[in-house]
Amino acid sequence: MRNVKVGLVQMSCTADVDHNLAKAIAKTREAAAQGAQIVCLQELFKSLYFCDVEDHANFSLGESIPGPTTDTLSDLAKELGIVIIASLFEKRAPGLYHNTTAVLDADGTYLGKYRKMHIPDDPGYYEKFYFTPGDLGYKVFNTKFGKLGVLICWDQWYPEAARITSLMGAEILFYPTAIGWDTNEQDPSINVEQYNAWQTIQRSHSVANGVYVVSVNRVGREADQQFWGGSFVSNPFGSLLYLASHDQEEIKVVELDLDKTEYYRTTWPYLRDRRIDSYQPITKRLIDE
Prior knowledge:
alpha+beta
């Protein structure tokens, strides 16, 4: 049996990047002590979610990848014998930045990075001000413990991204995330609908592609955002194997049976019945009648 134990680190952040990094390292160690073989950190875990405002000063948070943080996490991965998935603010060149996730293998090897493809621009999420859309394409990382697909936050709303990454061989889709509720929203039902939509779309990726989905979000109040946590793991039928709280820091290790992929994909053979000859219109922005 190809069982793998996945660790989720759901935490709050402060303006102190050194404190956040030390906290993430400590929680990664705790997850490893609980048996985690792969640990996924949330989106942009080293800082507050700075994209709530357009402020040039925030570009100082950018760093090279690989660089000092990936070096530190590489040493940690090697020491603990685990894979680490780390979301960082990449400074590629002066004036050129990406929202990027690095993957470190269990022997400390830097396997590469994925640059966020879909960049939002909404109230509280002014990411287009900071991030250039990814240009590395979709990525699968062949780690000691399995083939991992990594997508980032806004990517999670796009079935095309999940499908392509799954077709590339991903056995698990990881979504480092930073999303929450607007604290000025007066109608609580809207908050419920937003969270349910966020979870539902990702669980649907599990079903449509016959893969596990691991979504890791942050918690805590930052300016006008109340990050909603709710990190979860779903199996290839979309069933929840773990669901975190909305307001607590949590470390959870979930065991996944990768051998069951064959069972799920032959029981519901979506990949068999795909009509790839009919999908060309999807490459257009809008299909004219």
